[in-house]
Amino acid sequence: MRVISGKARGTTLFPPEGNAVRPTTDFTKENLFNIIQADVAGCVFLDLFAGCGGVGIEALSRGAVRAVFVDNSQKSIDLVGRNLAKTRMTANADVIKGEIPAVLTRLQGQKFDLIFLDPPYAKGLATKTLEGILSADILADDGYIIAEVAKEEDFAPCVGLEIFKTKVYSGSKLIFIGWGGE
């Protein structure tokens, strides 16, 4: 696990221990950022189910002005902090421990240009998280959401959102979701 591009390019990140956290692979992360690169510089990024923080740190490395990392595990929160320190990106980051949707409610009043969520697979958390994002009204008007879910997982966005792109990889898929019709 490493930072692929930008200011912290090549920095190896501290990995999670055990199998409780499934980090986004470098391959998937590189493909993700190839797709969203034009939207990263200057954005405010929200990394939900952050794990070790690799995706949000990649966003900061590539020019995001701020990133917020959320996870419910103290081990993950500590790991995100260590990785932010290692990449020297703590000044532009906030790390929050808590459960979703409670944390999303605490973020009300803030707007995020890009929201990445990578919940544990096959637990229905992606749809519940989208509902929380809508309820908290934290997605910027021109922002969008990227959900990483299991390749075989069925997924439908909430009313008001629509899928505009899906990319399938070996064991997962990235679903790009933006504002849509009611």
Give a description of the structure.
The protein is an alpha/beta fold and 182 residues long. The protein contains 5 helices and 7 strands. It has a 7-stranded mixed beta sheet with strand order 3-2-1-4-5-7-6, with helices on both faces. Helix 3 links the parallel strand 2 and strand 3. It is globular, with a radius of gyration of 15 Å. It starts with 25 loop residues before the first helix and ends with a strand. The mean pLDDT is 93.
**What value does the average pLDDT take?**
93
**Helical segment count:** 5
Query: Gyration radius, to the nearest Å?
Result: 15 Å
**Which structural class matches the secondary elements?**
alpha/beta
| Number of β-strand runs | 7
- How much β-strand is present in the residues? 25-35%
Largest sheet: 7 strands, mixed
State the shape: globular
Distance between the termini: 40 Å
User: Low-confidence stretches at least 5 residues in length (pLDDT < 50)?
Assistant: none
Strand order of the largest sheet: 3-2-1-4-5-7-6
- Report the helical percentage: 25-40%
Give the H and E element order: HEHEHEHEHEEE
